[in-house]
């Protein structure tokens, strides 16, 4: 049985960076990776360009992780976005920032980010053992025994960095939840997050690709309003996507309804009142002329007319009260019922996971089992799209490694 000071399970950014930071003190580190290579999900990040983090201060970051953001405060303050970028810059990787604050490697290649991490692992003598799918983690007194499909290892410290369930073809199959449950940890029910929505009886397929900037919409369940959101919004062939949907998908489930304000009215009632007056005074003016004058593309405006049953030659004076009401509703509170969330094969991250109540936020160590650490997506925390999840993974890894090294 091979003995190590620290065993890290999982070769994504959280696992690789934990191993790198632990190796500062010359400890013998093993990283066990189930695949033939590390970082398969990292290579997909940002459509292969790797949106590694977001520009701005860390106070803003804490608004981008849903209800559990407070847990990350210590980690984000200990290892900020600037410190993350500094780590890579010192190793020759430069970055570019988009006008919306997304940070990418200048090469726009995820492979370059992974290359730096793997090179640093090699430089620090970290043993990366591939095709070592961990099947069991046990603890006897002060020593962990880690059994893989090939052999057994032992260590004083184990770090679980196995990710969640999203993109299962990359190896993220929920292994860490099994290990955590074996040690008595509670697993918060998981579901896909940062994912598009499929819509029941979808009417916009022929407008797939149409986008709206900062579209406002409300979220309803069982007739009760649960939230009001705003963000970039995209019509797809089967539903809706874009950051404005993806970031809030963590709160949604099948059967929920979203009501879309396509015209961007600050006050829906005021907009309806003004449009009603214009239609009433229009007389011989064609309804399509009034609708096409709204802040909409012609293609979208024509689709609205079609959905409301308003013909090419219909004049304002001929518009019935019922049809006018349908037009107003379609423009300002168009309802879409969620058929289902995109599955794990398209979800960027997983919501749910190892309960944060059982993890020390200053060290990432288990409150139940000493020297057992959890970092990254295996925990019940997920961030918005835009580099927030990679930043969180690296920040958690830094805190865990710091605590391990200080022992």
Summarize this structure as a short list of keywords or feature phrases:
18 strands; RsdA/BaiN/AoA(So)_Rossmann; 29% helix; seven-stranded mixed beta sheet; six-stranded antiparallel β-barrel; Aminoacetone oxidase family FAD-binding enzyme; 12 helices; 2 domains; RsdA/BaiN/AoA(So)-like_dom; FAD/NAD(P)-binding domain; flavoprotein; 407 residues; FAD/NAD-bd_sf; alpha+beta
Shape: elongated
- What oligomeric arrangement do these chains adopt? single chain
How many discrete domains?
Answer: 2
CATH-derived topology of the largest domain: FAD/NAD(P)-binding domain
What order do the helices and strands follow? Answer: EHEEHHHEEHEEEEHEEEEEHEHHHHEEEH
Pfam family, one: HI0933_like
Organism: Turicibacter faecis
Cofactor: FAD
Keywords: FAD, Flavoprotein
Q: Helices and strands in order, then pairings?
A:
Elements: E1 2-9, H1 13-22, E2 29-32, E3 53-54, H2 58-61, H3 73-78, H4 81-89, E4 95-97, E5 102-105, H5 110-123, E6 127-129, E7 134-140, E8 143-148, E9 152-160, H6 175-182, E10 187-193, E11 197-199, E12 211-221, E13 224-235, E14 239-241, H7 243-246, E15 257-261, H8 268-282, H9 287-292, H10 298-307, H11 321-332, E16 334-341, E17 349-354, E18 372-374, H12 388-406
Parallel strand pairs: 1-2, 1-9, 2-6, 9-18
Antiparallel strand pairs: 3-5, 4-5, 7-8, 8-9, 10-17, 11-14, 11-16, 12-13, 12-15, 13-14, 15-16
Helix pairs in contact: 1-5, 1-12
InterPro entries: BaiN-like, BaiN-like_dom_sf, FAD/NAD-bd_sf, RsdA/BaiN/AoA(So)-like_dom, RsdA/BaiN/AoA(So)_Rossmann
Organism: Turicibacter faecis
Domain RsdA/BaiN/AoA(So)-like insert: 191-349
